[in-house]
Amino acid sequence: MKVGYVRISSKEQNTARQDELMKNLGVEKVFTDKMSGKNTDRPELTKMMEFVRQGDTLIVESISRFARNTKDLLELIEQLEEKQVQFVSQKEALDTNTPTGKFMLTIFGAVAELERQYIKERQREGIDIAMAEGRFNGRPKKKLDIFDEVYTEWKNNKITATKASKQLSIARSTFYRRVKEYEDNIVIDF
């Protein structure tokens, strides 16, 4: 059986190009994930790996759609080989039934991992520049309209930190961080 695996990095992206490829190749069953490929913790990937069996052929559009680092790629390929499932990457024209295909798989896996590292590096550089220009401050802080009241109750030992964080709908660690920020900003007037 021809089995396909399709992945896009976010819900805003479109699978149409990969879906069309699967259709043209006569793929009978397709598994699609709409999430990052940074690791193998993907629901449809897991289902697909459980589904394939001896004699099947797994087809992907490109290695980067299947795995984004060499370690994950090689582990997935090893699992497929144990099940006697052939792996085909259309873009790189790789077929794991040949020694050359296996060798090239390792090379392309390393390239996909390098590409992921470059993406992360460019993202970090962009964030650093935006922060330096005052355009990026991270995720906005949650507005806590009743923080003063809850803080006072907590400070007077009327409620616990757990209860305070529940009233504010924040994590207890966030509550303690906000308490520290609040106490650091109190101006003592003499």
What are the SSEs and their pairings?
Layout: E1 2-8, H1 16-24, E2 29-34, H2 43-51, E3 57-60, H3 63-66, H4 70-82, E4 86-89, E5 94-95, H5 99-132, H6 147-155, H7 161-168, H8 172-184
Parallel strand pairs: 1-2, 1-3, 3-4
Antiparallel strand pairs: 4-5
Helix pairs in contact: 4-5, 6-7, 7-8
| Percent range for β-strand residues | 5-15%
Q: Give a short account of the largest sheet.
A: 5 strands, mixed
Structural class: alpha/beta
Instruction: Name the CATH architecture of the largest domain.
Output: 3-Layer(aba) Sandwich
The ordered string of helix (H) and strand (E) elements is EHEHEHHEEHHHH
What is the fold named in CATH at topology level of the largest domain? Rossmann fold
Counted up, domains total: 2
The CATH homologous superfamily name of the largest domain equals: Resolvase, N-terminal catalytic domain
Coarse shape: elongated
| Lateral strand order in the biggest sheet | 2-1-3-4-5
Number of strands: 5
Count of helical segments? 8
Radius of gyration: 25 Å
Give the termini separation. Answer: 81 Å
- Estimate the helix proportion, in percent: 40-55%
